[in-house]
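Example record for the data management plan.
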Amino acid sequence: MVNECNLNDVLVRPNTYDPEADDDKTTTTTWSSGPAAAMLGQFRDGATTRDSSMDVSTDGSGEVRRAKWGRSIEFLLSCVALSVGFGNVWRFPQVAMENGGGAFMIPYLIILFLVGRPMYYLEMVMGQFSSRGCVKVFDLSPLMRGVGVGQTLIMALILGFYSAVLSISVRYLIASFSSTLPWARCSSDWTNCVNSESLTRVFNSTTHRPSAEFYFNEDIIHSESIKESGVLGWPDYNLALCLLFCWICITVILIRGIRSSGKAAYFLAIFPYVILLVLLVQVCSLEGAWDGISFLLKPQWEKLLDVKVWQAAVTQCFFSLTISLGAVIVFSSYNNFSNNIYRDSMIISWLDTFTSLMSGFIVFGILGNIASITGNTVETLKETLKLGGPGLTFITYPDAIAKLEAGRNVFAVLFFLMFFLLGLGSNTGIVTTIVSGVKDRYPQLTDWKVVSVVSIYGFSTGLIYITPGGFDVLGVVNDYGVELTVLTLVILEIVTFCWVYGVNRICHDIKFMLDISTGIFWRVCWGFVTFTIIFTIWIFSMKNFTAHDVPDGLNALGWCLFALVVVQVPLWAVYAVSKRTETGLAKKIIAASHPTPDWGPESPSTQMQYKTEVRKRAEEKLASGKSIGTRLCPIFSE
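Corresponding structural encoding:
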């Protein structure tokens, strides 16, 4: 058994490391005088004056410094804009519908409490403490750096279809300026169509569908199954122009770095709630709305034994809070060192849950109204309507707006402007995560160059999803390249943070940073509960996974995406081990699992204090005879 003191002693002795062993670490410089020392307080307080996401010291050392949010409220609102977005308004109602409404709610709330909140707080802690992005944060264990690289690749996959959904919202926004909402009434060539603006029930018409559904599938995306047509088809030129507009907006917001996106968060985070609250009041007044809402809230206890429901709850939790995707780590890395992230994580996680429920009430209230008018039940609407992908959102919300007796055009404009802003917040957060991963590795690159390249990539991949068969591709990419990979990487992330680095050390880091003690709930979740839940669901998910009903080549592409993301872990592990100068494979692996010499707070003086404390704690453990095993069983110890 290796003694913990020996490990911690390695962590705090930079002079014993070969500089060639960690070629990607930043230079550690101790400043006691000169311009850099004078600027140190500014960096600590976040009072930097540059707009780029990385600043460079003026002492000639070339030391790269990370910019900070202008104010702590900008961080809070940016996280709200990131987390409270498409994951809530689009994805939550869709996943709830696919998994039986009330059957989904209980697992979802349990997962939020035992997995979502602990992981959200943990990622905030690691990002703020180290001032590193989702790749560089694995300086705490370079052996596992591939986890951060894989998370960045997942974000790149998500970016394509999130921007496509954003372009659809712009298309609806433009259509809302028509004198008559184009989805409110049926077209002559739509068979078995019911006007969405109608409040009159259609008897004996269980096969009828609202005009909003026809408008979305026939006029907007020209939906056509790849399996039936055999081709993907060409992008709709109207949506392509909308997609280009979206990427121009994202580029303009981010091209000057984190500070410009922080200012935009004031509007991106607050305005959507005004529209959602108004729409919720409108929906609750519709006939049959409460039948739909009760379907969402009514438990189906037998479904608790269905592992697919639990898997859906976990993945929705990750999408909703944007955890295990690197974004939370990146956003918190721009915080001041002493910012109260415990408070922020609680506010954001509860607000996220509230928004998901509010969106669920709106969508299922509208479904209840549609069921009442067409003579269906909410349970059968999934089969009656074509609700795949984002379709549920772009059918139910417009259907509700069409039923407004007055000001429907004005409200349609406001709603789709809100939806656009929500998506803009989510997409800017994703791009920020990718840009941070690139710039942490290549800090000499300027913001506008990285943002421009990412934007070109996002626009190019987004074109795929606005083709007639694009939603089939979206389903494959989402299930193979995102959901399965997120489940896999989050397990490795927990192992790295909580077991390799250690829950005990995390708690000491929190005490050093925030001067607060970590409660037993967080210790139990980080050390055991969260990992056990996710690992169990991952096993059953892999065992019960079924291929999509699409051409074999598309399923093969899905598995290739899964392999591309997951293979980053062993590849980067081999690279980290190969850079070590120790003799013997076992010693190389152990050394590669230790933090790099510069791991810790960004400020040189604060890092010096931190390393002194770590060394002192290691000596105390050595004297008490405690071993490395305390890192794996830290729940009841401080």
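Summary line stored alongside the record: The chain has one domain: 72-576.
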